[in-house]
């Protein structure tokens, strides 16, 4: 078998037809990523493949640490080629890791490199990639166009002025839509030592008002939601340890909020009450705005204190948290549903053992307002590998309606990560093709092709109401 050829991951004829005739040419909507809008607005170029590949990729950093690479060649100031060579040496040993597939897909699609990356081939591939990056078309915008990206959503704090998004929107020559996504984590993080400073500082300045009362905070966030909506925002995103449910009145939330602003100390149950109350308020506002609410949970962050002090957050030292009280998630969604304030919602757990629980929970809150109103999000972070994707897709198919799934996202800071959509589509087509080969679904290519095209692109466009046309 040829290494990563045109039929990579496509093990049956139905899969090959579905991928090549229906999935491969579909455009990309990346509705959740961490690419800075400023880099798109400035149309940045990249000094080397090391800059582009290793500059902010904690997946690669984790693998390199596991291979005993010195931190100087990971997040430090080491020589760019030596960093690249160290990653090449790591990749050779990373058999079975999705990094091996992603990296070689990126080399193939963007640089025309079809040979495996090894320590021996590193210099040759490094020079070829850098020569390609010197081409004027290989800028941030050029790579997005080349990737067939039609729209992407960044991740933005409520206090962001969105100036880079506005600059992009004013440029009629750039056809890729770049929309903000509302990420109010800092407004909910009442347990953090910088909570009061954020509320009194960044958020107050963004609103042009003093925030002293809990009602002031809600008014401020309501204003920022309107501001984001004016700039094209269609969705929110929340990163949390878990979705809690500890209901309290606004009066109780006011007392807790004042304590936090005065640094009087807020105990754990008060933190949960505040978060429940504020997230419920935000969800109702999202429902009014017609937004989608994304809830990412199940992560324990910054576990290596030594590395955190050295290189900060997002350095590859996060892990799966096994505390995910799904009953509280169901209670939270129910509390919104009974008030008719449950927005379209996507649930992502970093812990794969939650797949079945999520599949059953989303089935409790579907309604006729939208097909697949409550979604199980794509296999996320530590799960966006072949097995993780197959398990998420199979669980969703077993317990829900797979044909309404809104599909893949990158959740990445890299402009080359769009091959992950290809990776997902190949896995999707192969899974469906296997079911057909096993006689579990008829070989109706018109219906199957429509399902694949919908999951790859169309469902997402409809669900978020992006309004994209071919």
Keywords:
470 residues, uronate isomerase, domain 2, chain A, TIM Barrel, four-stranded parallel β-sheet, three-stranded parallel β-sheet, 9 strands, 50% helix, globular
Structural commentary:
The chain starts with 12 loop residues before the first helix and ends in a 7-residue tail after the last helix. The strands form three sheets. The protein has a four-stranded parallel beta sheet with strand order 4-5-8-9, with helices on one face. With 470 residues, it is α/β, with parallel strands linked by helices. Strand 2, helix 9 and strand 3 form a beta-alpha-beta unit. The longest helix has 22 residues. The chain folds into two domains: 89 residues, uronate isomerase, domain 2, chain A; 324 residues, TIM Barrel, CATH 3.20.20. The protein is globular, with a radius of gyration of 23 Å.
How is this fold's topology laid out?
Blueprint: H1 13-23, E1 28-30, H2 37-41, H3 49-54, H4 58-66, H5 80-93, H6 98-111, H7 122-133, H8 140-146, E2 149-153, H9 163-170, E3 177-179, H10 185-188, H11 195-207, H12 214-230, E4 235-240, H13 250-261, H14 268-289, E5 292-297, E6 299-300, H15 305-311, E7 319-320, H16 326-337, E8 344-349, H17 355-363, E9 374-376, H18 386-399, H19 419-437, H20 445-463
Parallel strand pairs: 1-2, 2-3, 4-5, 5-8, 8-9
Antiparallel strand pairs: 6-7
Helix pairs in contact: 1-19, 1-20, 4-5, 11-12, 12-14, 13-14, 17-18, 18-19
């Amino acid at each position: 078998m040829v290494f990563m050829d045109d039929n990579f991951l496509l093990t049956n004829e139905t899969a090959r037809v579905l991928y090549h005739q229906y999935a491969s040419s579909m455009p990309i909507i990346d509705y959740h990523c961490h690419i800075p809008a400023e880099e798109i607005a400035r149309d940045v170029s990249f000094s080397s493949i090391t800059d582009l590949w290793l500059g902010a990729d904690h997946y690669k950093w984790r693998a390199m640490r596991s291979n005993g690479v010195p931190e100087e060649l990971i997040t430090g100031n080491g020589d760019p080629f030596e960093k690249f060579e160290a990653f090449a040496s790591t990749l050779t040993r990373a058999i079975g890791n999705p990094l091996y597939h992603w990296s070689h897909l990126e080399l193939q699609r963007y640089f025309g490199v079809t040979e495996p990356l090894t320590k021996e081939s590193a210099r040759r591939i490094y020079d070829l990639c850098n020569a390609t990056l010197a081409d004027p078309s290989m800028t941030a915008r050029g790579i997005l166009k080349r990737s067939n990206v039609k729209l992407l959503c960044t991740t933005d704090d409520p206090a962001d002025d969105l100036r880079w998004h506005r600059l992009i929107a004013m440029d009629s020559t750039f056809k890729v839509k770049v929309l903000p996504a509302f990420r109010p984590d800092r407004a909910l993080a009442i347990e953090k030592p910088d909570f009061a400073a954020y509320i009194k500082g960044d958020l107050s300045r963004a609103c042009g008002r003093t925030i002293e009362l809990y009602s002031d905070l809600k008014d401020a966030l309501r204003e920022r939601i309107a501001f984001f909506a004016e700039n094209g925002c269609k969705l929110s995103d929340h990163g949390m340890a878990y979705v809690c449910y500890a209901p309290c009145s606004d009066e109780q939330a006011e007392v807790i909020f004042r304590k936090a602003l005065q640094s009087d100390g807020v105990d754990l149950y008060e933190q949960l009450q505040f978060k429940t109350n504020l997230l419920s308020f935000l969800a109702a506002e999202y429902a009014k705005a017609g937004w989608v609410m994304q809830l990412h949970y199940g992560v324990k962050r910054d576990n290596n204190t030594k590395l955190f002090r050295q290189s900060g957050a997002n350095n590859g030292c996060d892990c799966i948290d096994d505390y995910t009280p799904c009953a509280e998630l169901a209670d939270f969604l129910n509390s919104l549903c009974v008030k008719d304030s449950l927005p379209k919602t996507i649930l992502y757990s970093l812990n794969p053992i939650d797949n079945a629980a999520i599949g059953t929970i989303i089935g409790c809150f579907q309604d006729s307002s939208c097909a697949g109103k409550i979604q199980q999000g794509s296999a996320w972070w530590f799960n966006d590998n072949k097995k993780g994707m197959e398990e998420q897709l199979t669980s969703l198919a077993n317990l829900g309606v797979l044909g309404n799934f809104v599909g893949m996202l990158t959740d990445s800071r890299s402009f080359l990560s769009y091959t992950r959509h290809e990776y997902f589509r190949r896995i999707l087509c192969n899974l469906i093709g296997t079911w057909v080969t096993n006689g579990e679904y008829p070989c109706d290519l018109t219906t199957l092709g429509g399902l694949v095209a919908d999951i790859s692109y169309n469902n997402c466009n409809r669900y978020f109401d992006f309004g994209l046309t071919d």
